[in-house]
């Protein structure tokens, strides 16, 4: 059987003729598509789909020509379809990833705002001297010794007031370990 006879037989539904053409062209087509994909497995997949299309469209075959050019065209078009599909998927995944990041940033921003408000409430609820000392130290960056001199109290009193403030803050944020880590590092 030659290729022309195989095309005629295949048009009449002869699976053996299809197998004959498959055996002739399969490895050649895989090698051809692999020059584009650089991936043998992907190339085999593309060529297999090309042969499925070849069988499905057997009625369109020209009985006077070798199916070689037609098979190569189908395989190449399948490769192009695969590339387009991959680019679409990549773009979609990029959009999903970007949206997830935006959502995460918004969630983090909202959570941070809630923590800041809660911290303000806790600090505002501290006794006046304790509140003044923690604001001076943690917000303004004043050292214990300078706070003691400025307020006319001992460094031990400053330490004691800071301990009270930290205890109340720890109680208020006992579920929020990340903030405690940042605050007390």
From TrEMBL:
Keyword Ribonucleoprotein recorded: no
The RNA polymerase sigma factor 70 region 4 type domain, residue ranges: 118-163
UniProt keyword annotations, A-Z: Sigma factor, Transcription, Transcription regulation
Cited SUPFAM superfamilies: Sigma2 domain of RNA polymerase sigma factors, Sigma3 and sigma4 domains of RNA polymerase sigma factors
MF GO annotations: DNA binding; sigma factor activity
Cross-referenced InterPro entries: RNA_pol_sigma-70-like, RNA_pol_sigma-70_dom, RNA_pol_sigma70_bacteroid, RNA_pol_sigma70_r2, RNA_pol_sigma70_r4_t2, RNA_pol_sigma_r2, RNA_pol_sigma_r3/r4-like, WH-like_DNA-bd_sf
GO biological process: DNA-templated transcription initiation
Pfam families assigned: Sigma70_r2, Sigma70_r4_2
Domain of life: Bacteria
Domain called RNA polymerase sigma-70 region: residue spans: 21-88
Electron transport listed as a keyword: no
Family affiliation: Belongs to the sigma-70 factor family. ECF subfamily.
NCBIfam families assigned: Sig70_bacteroi1, sigma70-ECF
Protein name per Swiss-Prot or TrEMBL: RNA polymerase sigma-70 factor (ECF subfamily)
Lineage: Bacteria, Pseudomonadati, Bacteroidota, Flavobacteriia, Flavobacteriales
């Amino acid at each position: 059987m030659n290729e022309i006879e195989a095309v005629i037989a295949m048009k009449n539904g002869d699976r053996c003729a299809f197998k004959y053409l498959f055996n002739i062209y399969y490895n050649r087509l895989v090698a051809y598509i692999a020059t584009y994909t650089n991936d043998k497995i992907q190339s085999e997949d593309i060529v297999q789909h090309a042969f499925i299309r070849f069988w499905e469209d057997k009625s369109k075959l020209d009985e006077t020509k070798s199916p070689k050019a037609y098979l190569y065209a189908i395989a190449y078009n399948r490769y192009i379809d695969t590339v387009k599909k991959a680019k679409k998927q990549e773009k979609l995944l990029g959009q999903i990833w970007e949206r997830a990041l935006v959502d995460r940033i918004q969630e983090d921003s909202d959570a941070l705002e809630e923590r800041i408000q809660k911290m303000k409430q806790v600090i505002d609820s501290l006794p006046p001297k304790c509140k003044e000392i923690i604001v001076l130290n943690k917000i303004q960056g004043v050292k214990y010794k300078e706070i003691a001199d400025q307020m006319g109290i001992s460094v031990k009193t400053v330490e004691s007031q800071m301990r009270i403030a930290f205890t109340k803050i720890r109680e208020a944020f006992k579920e929020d370990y990340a903030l405690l880590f940042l605050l007390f590092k």
